[in-house]
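Ticket 4471: requesting a sanity check on a complex prediction with fe (iii) ion. Repro inputs:
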Amino acid sequence: MKLIGPFKQIITLANLPLKGKLNDNQLEIIENGGIIVDEEKIIEVGDFELLSQNNSTIEIERIESEQILLPGFVDSHTHICFGGNRAKDFAMRLDGKTYLEIAESGGGIWSTVTQTRNKTVDELKDITLKNSVQLTKQGITTAEVKSGYALSVEGEIKMLEAINMANQETEIDLIPTFLGAHMKPKDFEGSNREYLEILIKEVFPKLKSDQLANRIDIFVEQSAFSVEEGDYYLNEAQKQGFEITIHADQFTPGGSSLATKYNALSADHLEFSGEEEVKNLANSDVVATVLPGASIGLGMQYSPARKLLDAGCCVAIASDWNPGSAPMGNLLTQASILATFEKLSMAEVLAAITFRAAKALNLADRGTIEKGKKADFISFSTLDYRNIIYYQGQLQPTHVWKNGALINQ
Ligand code: NIG
Ligand code: FE
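Returned structure tokens:
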């Protein structure tokens, strides 16, 4: 057991609603705070002096400079396991080519698939580990990682094995998701439906038997899988007890209706969600995950985060870090930029990258600083928590604790 502190401010993110809009004055701020942790869990949070007086023999991990403490960030949507690079696609977009035109001329998801298939499981593990080090530096203590860049039975299993191996070696938690349904691979001769049937028959059982992933994702879009095809696939996924998340409404609406039908954990993207889709999501428990990194990477409109919050949705923000649409991989920068365009409060941004993102991963044990939660937290060397969003990602955490242990010193 140890007492960590004192912190100038602890922003607990506790006691806030899961859904809907938030004002900054709803944030619980503990001045001159301390935190007692034991065996990876938070035991008590409160005034540092009081905690040390009441626990006179406790070991103290003293924080010498003035720091602001927050829960560790959660990035609930990434594709950080991939081979190669898509700078050529990016240059083509700058030259006015559309995502579809680029895909047709040999770029797009397929180009990453060919580059990823060439990698060994160890190489993919190393790439995932290297990217997870970047996430850790930004204060992310839990990140989801999708497969979806091999698009063959063996290749997808290799990706998931690499992600699971990386999770064993990295200090942060990596949560694997099976995204074999990213698109029908170009070398598959049958129909979309036949490709999905193979995934269901040959990959789903492996996910369970080898404990590779408990989450299923599908890209529902004209260029990938239709709503009907998604319906068929997700029905199977649900019957087999998998958690569901969907790449939805990125270029055309449709996917989010499947998210609510199957009570998915989250519907992600939502750039093209209209009034009906927003209302539908607000009437459900599906987390609406917005991905400003993809809007920045593609030069597209942002997802309607303000409307989603006003309608009463649980909104998470994730990086979507991938080599195609979102190469930046900096959640705090992206969330801060989204806030300026969508007029999000600081409380809404912080909730969206902590406990609301944890909800999208079905992880009720993290995302806030309160008794009983995981001791995952980060501190910034600054005097006011608002500076964290204000500096748009320039201010990085000086300390990162995972399961109560400092991991970046
Ligand atoms: O979330 N939209 C589909 N999938 C990824 C991009 C994949 C890629 O372009 O490599 C996304 O944006
Ligand atoms: Fe994505």
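Notes from triage: Residues 109, 112, 219, 247, 250, 294, 320, 322-326 surround N-(iminomethyl)-L-glutamic acid (ligand 1) (CB under 6 Å). Leaving this open until the requester confirms.
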